[in-house]
Amino acid sequence: MFYFTSCGEVFTLALLRTNFLIKDHPLKDMMLLAMATLSKVFMVHLRPGLTVIFTKQLKGPATTLPLLAWQIVIIQVTDSSRVIDPVLAFGRHDTIYFYLVPFVVPCITLSLV
């Protein structure tokens, strides 16, 4: 899906809803949006709060448009452990990139009484 801005710049959007992942997946309540202009890719969290989590410059001739696609991948960490995480595939002209969405376990603060 392509849109034109008021400046005539073409960009595309790709929404990833993570609520269909495993019921207790750490990313299940997040909504991720990837956006691409002719010169840059942005990834933002829409939910639970609006945060830019990734940007990458894109290069290529003006005759090529950016492409975005979300993939859910299973990564085998050890012989008995696997994780399921979203990956954004994006590219322009003759280059394709893959970005694994990082999940950082939130810090827990303990109070000693």
From TrEMBL:
Superkingdom classification of source: Eukaryota
A Pfam cross-reference name: Beta-prop_VPS8
This protein's name: Vacuolar protein sorting-associated protein 8-like
Lineage of source species: Eukaryota, Metazoa, Echinodermata, Eleutherozoa, Echinozoa
